Amino acid sequence: MKKSHIIALVVIAVAVAMIISTVGDASTYSDFGEAKRMAEDGNSNAVHVVGELKKDGMGNITGMVYQPSVDPNRFEFMMIDSLQNESKVVFNKPKPQDLERSEKVVVVGSMNLENQYFEAEQILLKCPSKYNNEGLEVEETAMIENE
Question: What percentage of the chain has pLDDT greater than the value 70?
């Protein structure tokens, strides 16, 4: 075999290995019930849970706790997923800016069975835009990571 053929085969093998490794790390969309079942089965893979902040009858957000003077890296809130399951979410980073204005929230993480809450590694916000064009809304997506 020529040297160029060997190099091409090595490059292809590396590319296939990278694709397989990224597929294995991919998280799935789920709900809080599925996240809890996965944790009970010992599966610690991250899942995406889509939902909204819990609000009272007047439309005010309830269950949000952020005390930067006590612990600036702990933010808690109540979230209702797409199947109407409710769970406390803990994010060990500062509170994301404009969280209250977001239409939908996507939390990425896993269920903490010991403390009975969802531990978020990332929070993705889908915020309404201030730029509206005759009923068309342009939306922004913000990503906050917990490193």
Answer: 80
